[in-house]
Amino acid sequence: MIDQSVVAPPDSAARLPVRPSAGRFLILAVVFVCAACGLVYELELVALASYLIGDSVTQASVVLSLMVFAMGLGSLLAKRLRCRAAVGFGLVEAALALLGGTSALVLYATFAWMGESRYALIGFSLSIGILIGAEIPLLMTLIQRVSRQDAGGTVADLFAADYVGALVGGLAFPFLLLPWFGQLTGALLTGAVNVVAGGALVLWVFGRDLTGRERGLLLLVNVLVLTVLGTAAVTVDDFERAARRAVYGDGVRVAVQTDVQEVVLTGGREGPLDLYLDGRLRVSERDEFRYHEALVHPAMSGGRHARVLILGGGDGLAAREVLRYGDVRSVTLVELDPGVARLARTDPALAGLNGHVYDDPRFRVVYADAFAWLRGAARSEAYDVVISDLPNPGITPSTKLYSEEFYGLASRVLAEGGRLAVHAGPSAARPRTYWTVDATLRAAGFRTSPYSATGRVSGFGAGPDRAHDEEDAERDDWGFVLAAVGRAPRVGLSPQTPPLRSLAGPVLEAGVLRAERTRLRDLPPSTLVHPRYAG
Q: Using 50, 70 and 90 to split pLDDT, how confident is the model at 466?
C-alpha cells in the first residue's frame, strides 16, 4: 500500500542526463520491475513454507500477514532516508536483492541441515517486507524531484506501475520462473534483476546528484551483491545435491521436479527403496506391504470386485494388490502427477516393487485431479470397489479429497453393493482428523467400518516434516475406513483372498478394536467451504 502521508514538497530539481519526462518514465519502469520482484519474493516464501513446513493455508497466512505488517514499518522507517532518497533507494534495493535472491537457498539449507526452517522464514518475511515497504516513499521523493506533478497524480502513477508489476511478477512465478529455473535459481535470477534495475536508476539517472563517495559505495555494494548471486547460481547444482544428501541420505538415485511436485527415490539397489514426494516419505519398501494390504484386501474381500477404481496411488502398489485377484477384469487409476506414474513404470526398483502393473492389460491410468475426474465421470461407470489412496487429510492440498462433496461424487460411481476404502491418516496419533473422515463419509450417505493397521517400521505417510521421530513412527498406525451405501461393510477377508504377508482375520479384528478405542463422537463433517482437518 502507498502511504500518502509520505508525500512532501519535492526537494530541489534533480540534475538529470535525460529530459524530465524520460526520467519520470524510467522511475515508473523501475517501480514496475521492483513490484514484480517483490511479489516473486513473497510467493517464493509462501511456496517454500508450504513445501518445507506443510499446511499451505497457515503458512501463506503467516508469511503474508508478517510481510504486510513489515511493509508498514518499512514505510515509516523510510522517512529517515528521504533527505538522501537516491542513495537510500539504491542501498534498499541492493539489500532487498540480496535477501530475496538468497532466501530460497537459506531456507532450504536450514531445513536440510537443521531440520527446522520456521524461524528463518519469519526472519525473511519481516526483513523483506520492511525493505519492500521502504521502496515507495523513496520513489515518491525521487519522482517529485524529476517532475513537479500534483501529489494525487504522482500517487496514481505509482499505484498503476506498482500493481501492473505485481501482476507480471505473480504470473511469472508459476508459469516462467518455477518451470524453467526452479525455486533456487529463480529466486537468484529475480534478485539479479532487482539489483540491476535499482542500481541503474540511481547511478545513471541521479548519478550527478551523488557525491563521489556515494557513487563508489553504491557501485561496490551492487557489484558485491551481483557477485554473491552469480556465485550462488553457478554452485546451485552442487548445493542441491549436498542438501538432498542431508535430507535423504547418500542413497539418492532419482530426483526430479515434475509439474506437480519434487519426486525423490532412494535405495533400491543397495538397501530398501524409499519414495519421497515434496520431502515427505510416501513409500518405504520396509513396510509398504502392511499399508497396501490393509487398504486393499478388506474392500476386495467384501463382494464383487471385477471393476476397481483407484484414486491416487500412482506408485502402482495398491494396483499390485488389486491385480492379485484373477477375476479382476479392469483397474482404472486416476493419478494427478504423470511424473510419478512414469517412474513407477520405468524405474527398475519401483517397477519391480509394484509387480510391473503398468504392463498389465487390465490396468489403465488416467492423468487427472481425482475430484475433477469424479465430477465428470459418467454415471454409467460403475465400480465394484473404489480405493482412495491419497495423502493424509491434514495436508492442506488434500482436504478437498476428504470432503463431503468428494465422497458424494465417489458414491455416484459405486455399483450396487460396492465398497469404498479410504486411507484416513493415523487413528492413534491424529484421532480428530481420522474420525472427521469417518463423520464426513457418514454425512455423504455411507455406512462405515473403521479399522487400523500397525507394524510400521518407518515414517511412511507420517506427516509433512522430515524430522518426524522414528520412535513415534514405530508406535504409529495407519487408519482406514471401509464404507458402503446401505449397510456397514464387514472388515474381514474371504477364502478367495490371496496369501498375504502381514494381514489375517485376527489382525483385522484387532485393528477394528484398536481404532474404536480412539473414537471421538459428534464431530462435524468436512466440506469444501468449511474444511475441518488440522494441518
A: very low
In CATH, what is the architecture of 285-516? 3-Layer(aba) Sandwich (3.40)
315 marked as binding residue? yes
> What's the CATH class of domain 4-247?
mainly alpha
Residue 380 · residue 360 · CB < 8 Å: no
Q: Is position 298 annotated in a ligand binding site?
A: no
Closest to 374 measured CA to CA, from 403, 348, 351, 416: 403
Q: Is the pLDDT of residue 255 over 60?
A: yes
pLDDT digits (tens, 9 = 90+) for 22-76: 888 999 999 999 999 999 999 999 988 887 877 677 788 889 999 999 999 999 9
SS3 458: coil
Count the helix, strand and coil residues of the chain and give each as a percent rounded to the nearest 5: 60, 15, 30
The predicted structure's pLDDT at residue 190: 97
Q: Which of 85-89, 420-424, 462-466, 471-475 has the lowest mean pLDDT?
A: 462-466
CA–CA distance, 65 with 437 (Å, rounded to integer): 31
287 given a catalytic annotation: no
Q: How far apart are CA 355 and CA 353, in angstroms?
A: 5
Cα Rg of the chain (Å, integer): 28
Domain ranges in the chain are 4-247, 285-516
Specify the pLDDT at position 476.
72
Which residues contact residue 410 at a Cβ distance below 8 angstroms, ignoring those fewer than 6 apart?
Answer: 311, 374, 386, 388, 420, 444
| 457 neighbors 287 (Cβ within 8 angstroms) | yes
Residue of 162, 389, 438, 476 marked active site: 389
Q: What mean pLDDT is predicted for residues 442-455? A: 94
Q: Is 370 annotated as a binding residue?
A: yes
H-run or E-run covering 383: strand 383-389
Q: Do domains 4-247 and 285-516 have the same CATH topology?
A: no
DSSP codes, 167-217: HHHHHHIIIIIHHHHHHHHHHHHHHHHHHHHHHHIIIIISGGGS-HHHHHH
pLDDT at 515: 94
pTM comes to 0.82
| 261 marked ligand binding residue | yes
Q: How many Cβ atoms are within 10 Å of 347's Cβ, its own excluded?
A: 18
Q: What is the pLDDT of residue 474?
A: 38
Average pLDDT over residues 352-370: 96
Per-residue CA distances from 408 to 155, 316, 442 (Å) = 51, 25, 10
Which three cell numbers mark 254? 532419482
